[in-house]
Every structure is written in structure tokens, then in C-alpha cells.
């Protein structure tokens, strides 16, 4: 892929996920706002466009050993992977994080009142993410698998109750943006997950886990917004046009 200023952040990361770390360091949202171009983010962030493009091109020339080419995966495999890896991660890690946040709020909340807001934001995020994931697992992902079966087995076809896959996708993308913004607030409140000098070990571990949670969420949203969703829309359009 020849990278230019007109490429969107999302398509660049979809082509080579190693670029995500560079965008993260520059504070560029590659998941929820991945539809912005290099030109747009450089203007918004006051970045030197030529330098950013060169850094991206340098990354592209490096060895890709260990990188995962998610774009090459069958779309139903990608849906399975998101469900088994990222959805499960949210469910399992949130239990531990909620316990730790409650604990440090109890012990340190008097001197660090921002912890209570962090805890409130995280709990709100988990409630919404759980609902979000149920919708994906019971509505969107089964429809993706149904489309794959249609292409492979020429099964009978009928339009879903939601009429087009673009409708649930629009809802999912909107919910992704809400959670992305919520974690921006958490990041700001925690000074980029930097524990204060008086932080105990639990405090430090909690901030590390919050940072890890946000990073996993970024990859999770990227895989959906920039790879799974566009391919699902293309697949549906192909099926409908060939009925």
C-alpha cells in the first residue's frame, strides 16, 4: 500500500497494525475516528505531515515478522476471534478492575477524589460494553456467518429484520465512539495512567490494567470499524446484487 496524505488512519492501520503504536504516541485515534485522513489529523494536531508520512513509510519497510494480517482472515473467522478474544477479555478483566478500583477509591479516594470519577466512568463503560457485545453476538455476528454460508453453500436468502447490515453497524460504530470518548476522560483524569508518588502497589497495578484495557479496546474497535464492518457491508451488497 502506497501511503499518502489522503489515506485514512483506519485503512493505514488495517493494512499494517504496527502503525497503531505510532498513532497512539501522537494521540491520534485510529479506531473510533479512523475515518480521518493524514491530512486532516496533521492539521488538527499541528503535526508535520511530511515527517508523519516518512515515519509511516519507514515502518512499512521494516520486517513484518510477528505482525498479524487481520485483513487476510475470512470474515467469519474475524468475528469469532473478536468474540472469543476481545469480548472475553472485557468480561474477565472488568471483574478484577472493578474490585481494584473500589479498593483504591476506599483507601486513596479522600486524597485523590478523581478516582471516584474514574470508577464511575469505568463502571458505566462496562455496563454499556456488555450490552453492546450481546447485540454483536446475537444479531450482527450471526448475520455475518449467515452471509458466509450463503456464499459458500448457495443457501436460500431473505433480508434480516434490520433490513441491511449497515443499520446495526451504524449503531455499533456510534457506541464505539461513546466508549472511546469515555476512555479519553479516564486517561485525562489519570494523567495518562500515571500513578501519584503516594500510590500503593494496588494503585499502580490498577492504572496499568486500565491502560491495558484501553489498548485492547482500541484494537477491538479497530478490527470492527476498519476491517469487519466494511467487509460485511461489501459482502451484503454482493449477495443482494446477485440474487
TrEMBL record:
The UniProt record lists the keyword Iron: yes
All residue ranges annotated as the Hemerythrin-like domain in the record: 84-232
Subcellular location: Cytoplasm
Keywords, in A-Z order: Cytoplasm, Iron, Metal-binding
Identification of the protein by name: Iron-sulfur cluster repair di-iron protein
Gene name for this UniProt entry: ric
Amino acid at each position: 500500500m502506497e501511503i499518502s496524505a489522503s489515506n485514512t488512519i483506519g485503512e493505514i492501520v488495517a493494512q499494517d497494525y504496527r502503525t497503531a503504536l505510532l498513532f497512539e504516541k501522537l494521540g491520534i485515534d485510529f479506531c473510533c475516528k479512523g475515518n480521518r485522513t493524514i491530512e486532516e489529523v496533521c492539521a488538527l494536531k499541528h503535526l508535520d505531515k511530511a515527517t508523519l508520512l516518512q515515519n509511516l513509510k519507514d515502518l512499512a519497510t521494516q520486517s513484518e515478522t510477528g505482525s498479524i494480517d487481520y485483513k487476510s482472515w475470512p470474515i467469519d473467522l474475524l468475528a469469532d476471534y473478536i468474540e472469543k478474544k476481545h469480548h472475553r477479555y472485557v468480561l474477565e478483566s472488568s471483574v478484577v478492575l472493578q474490585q481494584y478500583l473500589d479498593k483504591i477509591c476506599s483507601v486513596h479516594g479522600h486524597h485523590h477524589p478523581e478516582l471516584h470519577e474514574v470508577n464511575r466512568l469505568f463502571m458505566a463503560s462496562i455496563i454499556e460494553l456488555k450490552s453492546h457485545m450481546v447485540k454483536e453476538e446475537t444479531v450482527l455476528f450471526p448475520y455475518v456467518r449467515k452471509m458466509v454460508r450463503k456464499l459458500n453453500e448457495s443457501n436460500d436468502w431473505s433480508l434480516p429484520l434490520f433490513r441491511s447490515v449497515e443499520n446495526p453497524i451504524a449503531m455499533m460504530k456510534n457506541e464505539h465512539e461513546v466508549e472511546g470518548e469515555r476512555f479519553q476522560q479516564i486517561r485525562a483524569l489519570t494523567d495518562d495512567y500515571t500513578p501519584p508518588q503516594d500510590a500503593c502497589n494496588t494503585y499502580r497495578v490498577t492504572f496499568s490494567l486500565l491502560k491495558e484495557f484501553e489498548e485492547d479496546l482500541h484494537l477491538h474497535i479497530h478490527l470492527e470499524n476498519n476491517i469487519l464492518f466494511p467487509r460485511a457491508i461489501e459482502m451484503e451488497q454482493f449477495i443482494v446484487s446477485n440474487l
